[in-house]
Amino acid sequence: MRRLIEGKIITGNQSKIKDINKQLLLVMIRQYQPISRVELSEKSGLNKSTVSKLIRELINEGYVRENGRGESIGGRKPVLLDINPYAIKTIAVGISVNTTTVVLADANSHIEKESSFDTISDPKDEFYKIAEISNEFYKEGKNISEIVFSIPGIVDVKNKVIKFAPNLHWKNIRVDEIFRERLEFTDIPISIDNEANFSVLAESWMGNIVKNEENIVYILINEGIGTGLIINNRLFRGYNYSAGEFGHMIINEGGRKCQCGNFGCWERYGSIKVAVDSYNLESPYHLRGKNNEEMFDSFVDNCNKGDKLAIKVAEDIAKELGVGIANIVNGLDPELVIIGGRMVKLWDHIKDTLIRTVEEHAIFGSTVNLRIEPTSFKAGTSSIVGAAVYGVRKLYSGYHISI
């Protein structure tokens, strides 16, 4: 998790200072919980009386709770504080090519309830099904602040429209309108964003890879390839919300046909679908599974068992991924590149070739101190965790990544 700047001095009118300092304490409690008032004073630079007053308000507002006592360092044992998990909740929805997952998450973005189903190709039926599950979650939960959708495609965040999701064959889907046709609690706000954007937010808030880096590329590799970008400590979506679509960067002009309609896109050479298709094309024994996700798991098993063909395919994919990452490094000069999605299951087999290829093709000096790391999340979970984090952002606005 990203480390806060401790001892931060904030200036402005008294009301604004108070609100910002409360947000600062909330972020610190979330990061270091359980934590005492004395520790909060030391880390924040606020005096003890100010911390005590603000914590009393946060407890009365229901955002913070006292939860046990710490070890004594002389005198009474300190009362420990943590975020009240029941203060605010989010329904987070992760849509992938094969599976849709709907979760109910608490104020710490921990999942309380989960429901999954096979993604429905017709978008109206898909969002009707999600609405049905959301209605059930709403009846069981309280304090639901928002419903957040993670989408594998280009999303108009402001107007809540899926502009283009090539691997789902969806265009111009007005999520807010369709979804609310079956949603029973109409006063709840809805947000949508790209899955890679949510993944990089999850890593920054909840993971253990990001430290103090302000320029980060998160490469989400599933059926396609998407990237979430943090540039100068801000999530970067671009003018038309299409920033980070490096999966459709041309690396072989006139090459393989892509779902986007172009030829030679990067994701046609480095996705889990490529691993499955390449193996099945050359092997007399097809991979087990009803879809590409399940067949990719079989492919990973084969690699782990020493299957020479599987290892060769993995090596080829690692090279293609390395070339694409080198292009990104040359263009953006990040401090940290994180590899996520289901491809991370293959990390032990691809990391050496991938990193070596990046170093061979990146421009001189651009890989100095560059870290390339696998995600700290279980494969396939980062985007929905990020959606859950986004749903409670109002508690922590002003700190961490500007979103």
Number of DSSP strand runs: 16
Instruction: Report the β-strand fraction as a percent range.
Output: 15-25%
Find the structural class using helix and strand composition. alpha/beta
**Known CATH architecture of the largest domain:** 2-Layer Sandwich
CATH classification, class level of the largest domain: Alpha Beta
Q: Which spans have pLDDT < 50 for at least 5 consecutive residues?
A: 2-10, 398-402
For CATH, the homologous superfamily of the largest domain is named as ATPase, nucleotide binding domain
Task: State the domain count.
Answer: 3
Mean pLDDT: 92
First-residue to last-residue Cα separation: 16 Å
Helix content: 25-40%
Rg over CA atoms: 23 Å
The shape, in one word, is globular
Largest sheet: 5 strands, mixed
Number of helices: 12
SSE pattern:
HEHHEEEEEHEEEEHEHEEEHHHHEHEH
- For the biggest β-sheet, the strand order reads 6-5-4-7-11
Can you describe this structure in just a few lines?
The protein folds into three domains: 70 residues, Winged helix-like DNA-binding domain superfamily/Winged helix DNA-binding domain (Arc Repressor Mutant, subunit A, Orthogonal Bundle); 123 residues, ATPase, nucleotide binding domain (Nucleotidyltransferase, domain 5); 164 residues, ATPase, nucleotide binding domain (Nucleotidyltransferase, domain 5, 2-Layer Sandwich).
